[in-house]
Design goal:
Blueprint: H1 7-14, H2 19-25, H3 30-36, H4 39-49, H5 66-77, H6 79-82, E1 88-92, E2 101-105, E3 120-125, E4 129-134, E5 139-143, E6 151-157, E7 162-167, E8 171-176, E9 182-187, E10 192-200, E11 203-210, E12 214-219, E13 225-230, E14 238-241, E15 247-252, E16 258-263, H7 264-268, E17 278-280, E18 286-291, E19 298-305, E20 310-323, E21 326-338, E22 348-351, E23 356-360, E24 364-369, E25 374-379, E26 385-390, E27 394-399, E28 404-409, E29 416-422, E30 433-439, E31 443-450, E32 453-462
Antiparallel strand pairs: 1-32, 2-3, 3-4, 4-5, 6-7, 7-8, 8-9, 10-11, 11-12, 12-13, 14-15, 15-16, 16-17, 18-19, 19-20, 20-21, 22-23, 23-24, 24-25, 26-27, 27-28, 28-29, 30-31, 31-32
Helix pairs in contact: 4-5
Length: 466
């Protein structure tokens, strides 16, 4: 005999379940299947897993229900985890990047404007221009005119296929990477120290920090100045936005660490706030910062503790609090631990959405929970770890010989699973150095330099992405 619960309390109960449990509930009977397939439930799961779902509609993704979108998107982002080395095409992009190259993905999750599963990147080179590349084909698809001033920095907004550059004259330029003409320009009074484009609930923006400690926020696509605030007495050196762009972490490193966290809405809507809302984090000698993916308010800092120079991990939760008509930020220290000297000094680190910290020490890949419990160790000897890429799905280790080890976060445990190794097929002399490793759902790219020879872009692309 089947038991039918009223729909309203049943939906409330189902709202606490994850995707795997909802799929199991849907097998019980026809009524439960209908409730467990509700767009309300699945959109909430999509928004929790991919924050950009707050700002898009299903027709943009060619799906009829949020359940379909969740299943397809999960399948797609795990494509690299299911692959084998032979599923990748190895390619060296045949273009001279001279002695310095900086790549940024211009495609969103490996999808181009027409929805095909391909990766596109934008490059800035020392010849004062930027260009976009279909890395599956190894072909250039667009190039800007040569610029009169040296391009110092570039950022991209894949959602709009837009690139933003700033040159030595402190001129910001906005590019639609299909047209040769600049969309908008803006001149700054002081040299730009950092540049970052973000897609927020209030629309697309560019955040700019200068050498005088000023933070500017410009609107895309016209570079209208939304707000300007003096953050530090010296330059802003690092900027990290939280996953849903609720918080902005800013750091200056002149003389001593200066750290502030701003509430993004107070910067984007200055007319609604008497002053920008911020707080200071009292953590000296910060080395690295990582926001916990899919958890909007949690951030982990890695610092050096004197006099022993031990490495310390501090995890904070950021919360808004109201005092009368005033909004303030309160930070709470959630967890903290230090590494023993014998465990080495991490060069890179990241955090999973289950609060697992992964870090590399050169000879080892280490996993801890946020309280310092060792979960896993992967040894690298005689090889060395040169780079570490961490995202919500993968951990990619770049070794000193240019080979890549791809790991995946286990769905229903705290551990990492080693998937495969991608070998570097290019001869790498002792003087060669890997500048950067980046990835999206369907590709992994490396930039290598071997001074005085030009940089080389190496790409591994999945053969099939449907």
């Amino acid at each position: 005999m089947e038991v039918y619960l009223p729909s309203l309390p049943m939906m409330k109960i189902l709202s606490y379940l994850d995707a795997y449990s909802l799929l199991q509930v849907a097998q019980v009977n026809k009524n439960w299947n209908e409730l467990a397939s509700s767009d309300v439930l699945w959109r909430r799961l999509c928004q929790k897993r991919w924050f950009y779902c707050d700002m898009v509609t299903l027709p943009l993704h060619g799906k009829e229900t949020w359940k379909q979108f969740f299943i397809y998107r999960t399948w797609q982002e795990h494509a690299k985890s299911r692959a084998k080395p032979e599923d990748f095409t190895y390619k060296e992009i045949p273009v001279k990047f001279e002695f310095w190259a900086h790549p940024c993905y211009i495609s969103r999750h490996g999808l181009t404007r027409n929805g095909q599963g391909k990766s596109a990147i934008c490059m800035v080179t020392s010849v004062n221009r930027i260009s976009t590349w279909d890395i599956h084909e190894g072909a250039m698809t667009w190039v800007s005119p040569v610029q009169p001033s040296y391009i110092m920095q570039m950022t991209t907004l894949p959602e709009m296929h837009i690139a933003v550059t700033v040159d030595m004259q402190s001129t910001i330029k906005l590019w639609d990477c299909h047209n040769r003409e600049v969309l908008a320009t803006k001149a700054l009074s002081f040299s730009c120290q950092l540049l970052q484009a973000e897609f927020t609930k209030d629309g697309p923006i560019v955040l700019v920090g200068d050498v005088c400690g000023n933070l500017y926020i410009f609107r895309i696509p016209d570079l209208y100045l939304i707000s300007k605030v003096n953050v530090f007495p010296y330059s802003i050196d690092e900027l990290y936005c939280s996953p849903q762009k609720k918080w902005v972490f800013l750091m200056g490193k002149r003389l001593h660490d200066l750290i502030k966290v701003f509430y993004m809405s107070s910067l984007l809507r200055p007319s609604e706030f008497s002053a920008p809302v911020s707080t200071v984090l009292e953590v000296p000698l910060i080395r690295k910062v990582f926001w916990t993916p899919r958890r909007e308010d949690r951030i982990t800092l890695i610092s050096t503790v004197s006099p022993q120079n031990n490495t310390k991990f501090d995890t904070f939760d950021m919360k808004l609090e109201g005092i009368g008509n005033k909004v303030t930020i309160q930070e709470y220290l959630t967890a903290s631990f230090s590494l023993a000297e014998r465990e080495g000094k991490p060069d890179y680190f990241g955090v999973s959405d289950k609060d697992v910290i992964v870090c590399s020490t050169g000879s080892s890949l280490l996993l801890f929970d946020i309280n310092g419990l060792r979960l896993q160790t992967f040894q690298y000897c005689p090889e060395e770890i040169w780079k570490l890429w961490v995202d919500p799905v993968h951990v990619i280790v770049t070794c000193n010989d240019g080979s890549l080890d791809v790991y995946a976060w286990e769905e229903r445990s705290l551990l990492l699973r080693k998937c495969y190794r991608l070998l570097n097929r290019r001869y790498q002399p002792p003087s060669a150095f890997i500048i950067e490793t980046l990835c999206d759902d369907v590709s992994i790219i490396l930039v290598m330099t071997n001074s005085p020879n030009p940089c080389c872009l190496i790409a591994y692309t999945l053969n099939v992405c449907s």
